[in-house]
Amino acid sequence: MYTIENLALTLSQYLPYDQIAKVKRAYFYAEQAHDGQKRKSGEPYVTHPLAVAEILSELRMDCDGLTAALLHDVIEDTGISREALTEQFGAEVASLVDGVSKLTHLEFNSQVEKQAHNFQKMAMAMADDIRVILVKLADRLHNMRTLDAMPAHKKRRIARETLDIYAPIANRLGMYKVRVDLESLAFQAYYPMRARMLQRAINKKYGQQRIKDTQKLEDHIRAELAADYIEATISVREKHIYSIYQKMDKKRRSLAEIMDVMGVRIVTDRHDSCYRILGVIHALFKPIEGRFKDYIAVPKSNGYQSLHTTVLGSNGIPMEVQIRTEEMDLVANNGIAAHWAYKVSGTSNMPSNHDRATKWVKSLLEIQQKARNPVEFVDNVKSDLFPDEVYVFTPNGQIIELPSGATPVDFAYGVHTEIGNTCISCRINRRLAPLSTQLESGQTVEIITAKNAQPNVAWLSFAITGKARTNIRHYLKDKQRENAISIGNRLLTRSLNAFKTNIEELTIEQIAQVLNNHQLASLDDLLESIGKGRHVGYLVARELFPNYDEETLITPKSFKVNGSEGMLISYAKCCAPIPGDPIVGSVQVDKGIVIHHLNCPNVQDHLSNPERFIHMAWGKEIEEELNISLIVTYINERGAVANIASSISDTDFQVSNLDIIERGRVSRLRLSITISSRVGLADVMRRIKAVRCVEKVSRETIVGR
Asked: Hey, which of 136, 445, 525, 616 has its CA 20 to 30 A from 622?
């Protein structure tokens, strides 16, 4: 049972008397405010904020953070205002309580949009004061410890939400103890049968013998360290159950195949002792190649520092050994919360994990500002919440931390947004490499930029960091608007030509009337809407000149395709038109103009509709490279396919795929090829027809398959 006296006793170990008095005053204030309120378990409600404060006291939280923890439900549940708290406890405490109150009723359910919005609110609260999320994590931890009072369906929902959101945030902030507790409790609540069966299997596999083996191992390592005059604390532990389950689930292995269930942690007093201990461990046990990581020289992004090595134990089972100093151990267990322990004690040598966490939260703000909606925001920060880091170097030796699976594009944006926006290629360890290459720790990456370069939509298929994906999407969104305005301008101008006028000659009143009709703010918004196919240029022109005599309308000129329109001009896959083909444009909502072959069966019934179909023509200078498919009918003899392929191998045309679609004495194959004109197509078809075994070559349309 938690009591204010027990809390005060804990606080007396690191807080001065006047600050303890403030915390106690907050408790009595909360007790009075929550008077008569009960928890689901039947306990007085005030036991909950007291337990939250107790959890934070173990993390050495400062006075204002503890005060806010005791008062965190007061605004939400008792009607006491923020102003009243400011008067009683100061603006900083009131701000923290208000921040936590806004997160109190986060309801994560099957509605993706709502879940994403709530997580976005949490990120914004963290940006104001990171102690808000520490109070929220302690609040969640106590709720998980008392989850049995909840109905079964709520248990599962809260447990799932804990595994998806709260435990990853605790991990990202370096709070190992809190993360492990949250994961273990959530695992038991969400998968109770799996948890029981796995624990039973672990007990059966290792049994009581593991206690004796553990003690024997500790004594053996302690004796070897003492022989080298190294002082250290040694603990042998079993990996927590959810960690073992994740490893089994991800790698599709049985418990018998998960070898490194046991781990050894050695805590010493000095940096150099860590490396001396590593030497002793490698002399005692055979190290496993490729399983050593030096997080002291290169800390994790959340400030975690330790030496990790995996060795073969005396029983032949792999065993992970972690070696660190007492200061590193405090940071490893408490993460960002260790910052307040140092702050309270007045130590100037504060750990850098607070700065790292603050930097991460600021990066969330940047992502949030550029994301189009909460779902995109959450999608973009997932890789940041579940990092398995790689560490790569800039050419001048600066270390860049990235999630596992990151590419040079992620690296470029990690260095600076502008470098990401203008990168065109890269060198990895001084060798040119594709931008889609997955990076490995220790590599040196050099980004090559060009002044007029710009992000490519294809980058979204391999960029994984939130910063990279957000900036790419943000740029493409702006570029798409720019393209849409340009195309909308051309479409409206073309339609206005039929009325013997142009955009420059329109009056302010005419434009204002149309904007008002469609609830648009500016002419650019109208042009963008036309370019994206949401409004039709012909109909907008009719609105601008409602009284115009239709008999005097002139036929508008064809819309010229020059190949530089951007992403709002696309080519229909059903007929795959190429430069030189007669074409027609289909205006589709949010897709812009889709170009079809004039004889495409899919457009024949709609060509008379002037609203959605427009006459088009190829520009003189166009050199657009487009994919088409050829169907080749040939006699199936030895080397036939090779002869067909080699017939165009010495041309500039690129074959992207060759697929045999019918086998027999007379066979058929589909040849996908990149072509830029009808002249080039005729040349390719002539070369293929010249092969002795070929009987027929024709262009394929999807309609004809």
From this structure: 525
Q: What single-letter DSSP state applies at residue 12?
A: T
In angstroms, rounded to a whole number, what is the distance separating the alpha carbons of residues 122 and 125?
5
588 vs 496: CA distance, rounded Å = 20
Residue 474 CA to residue 370 CA, distance in Å, equals 6
Q: Directed axis angle between helix 131-145 and helix 91-101, to 10°?
A: 50
d(CA 120, CA 365): 9
Question: How far is Cα 305 from Cα 698, in angstroms, rounded to an integer?
Answer: 65
For residue range 478-496, list pLDDT tens digits in order. 887 888 888 888 888 888 8
C-alpha count within 13 angstroms, C-beta hemisphere, residue 238: 17
Task: State the catalytic residues.
Answer: 76-77
Between strands 583-588 and 613-618, the pairing is antiparallel
Q: Which residues make Cβ contacts (< 8 Å) with residue 76, sequence separation at least 6?
A: 101, 104, 105
* φ, ψ for residue 694, nearest 5 deg: -80, 130
pLDDT at position 107, please? 47
Q: Specify the pTM.
A: 0.59
For 32, the 3-state DSSP assignment is: helix
Strand ordering across the sheet containing 613-618: 559-561, 613-618, 583-588, 592-597, 569-571
Query: CA 63 to CA 11: how far, in whole Å?
Result: 9
Q: Report how far residue 442's alpha carbon sits from residue 445's, in angstroms, rounded to the nearest whole number.
A: 10
The tokens describing 135, both together, are 């109070």
How many Å apart are CA 141 and CA 143, to the nearest integer? 5
In one-letter notation, the amino acid at residue 269 is: D
pLDDT range class, residue 703, cuts 50, 70, 90: very low
d(C-alpha 286, C-alpha 318), whole Å: 10
Instruction: Give which of 308, 152, 171, 151 is closest to 242, Cα–Cα.
Output: 171
Instruction: List, for residues 331-377, the tens digit of each pLDDT value.
Output: 777 776 665 555 555 554 444 555 666 666 666 666 666 666 666 66
35 CB-side CA count, 13 A: 5
Q: How many CB atoms sit inside 10 A of residue 330's CB?
A: 19
